[in-house]
Amino acid sequence: MEETSAPGTMVKILSSLPSKAPDRSIKHVFRTSDRATFEAVQLWEGEHGAYSMCMSAQAGCRQGCTHCATTFARTPFVRNLNAEEITAAVEHLQERVRAQQGPLVWVDFAGVGEASANWAHVTTAARTIVGRGLAQQVKVTSIAPRAWVRSLLKPNSWLPDRLMFSLHGANTAQRRVIIPRADDPSTVLPLWAAVADLRPVVLNYVLCDHNTRPEDEAALAELLAPYAGRFLILRLSSFNPVQGSPLHPSSREEQFIAALSRDLSGWTVSHHLSAGRETTAACGQLRAETLDLPTPTKRPGL
Ligand code: SF4
Q1: Which residues form the Radical SAM core domain (predicted)?
Q2: Domains of the chain by range and CATH?
Q3: Around Cβ 219, how many Cβ atoms within 10 Å?
Q4: How many angstroms does the Cα of residue 181 sit away from the middle of ligand 1?
Q5: Residue 23: pLDDT band by 50, 70, 90 thresholds?
Q6: Span from the CA of 58 to the centroid of ligand 1 (angstroms)
């Protein structure tokens, strides 16, 4: 196992896993001084010819999403990362790429943990990261709970440069198959759209068997139709199967994508093919493999 750290830093790289060519991404597991672990991925952004970083907000996660390797690890949640640990990890990776490219093109809080659940430390770290020139931009991916989104909309709230919100279902029951404590999409979408008026927001929808049936095409199109032109894109993401997950990749991805592209006028619909299937890039997947965490015999029910 690789174990490196710059003198004086409070986090260490426990293990690194380079992707297969032609992807130049490198996935790292970090360990804190009290032995909590978290992931950070050096992502090669081909169109920019530079690295970004996918960063964790927490050591583990409490959300229990059924498409996520963190949920099925032996220690799904340990604790929040503090701002100093987040900044130290970003600095560590930035150090590795500085000679090649200067600052990271962005840091995206899309790794292990839910950024909104550790918002004070994420915002403190984000301000430091940009203020010290470690990255040009900060992005945040979130399940976007109602209370947190309301806080973003308060005057003078700090906002990242870009956000991605996880939808994954056209109604509450369907969303909760993947995100157990998800809000009703019909009540959070107006709030999400208000954020999208302030910053670019991507809506992410992971494609599984349970949410890509013919009736789901119409339900999702009806839900999203009033928000044409408000969000940056609707990103339909292939499911990257993780050990222990009860979910299955959709058997009708192509039809679902074609239907949404046809029926959602005023929306840009994109398909994100999961590179993670070959490279264990899914949230929490590398942490689980590096620590050799077994799949629990009992898994969260659908
Ligand atoms: S997908 Fe994100 S929010 Fe959901 S359990 Fe995994 S780390 Fe947590």
Answers
A1: 47-278
A2: 11-284 (3.20.20.70)
A3: 16
A4: 11
A5: confident
A6: 10
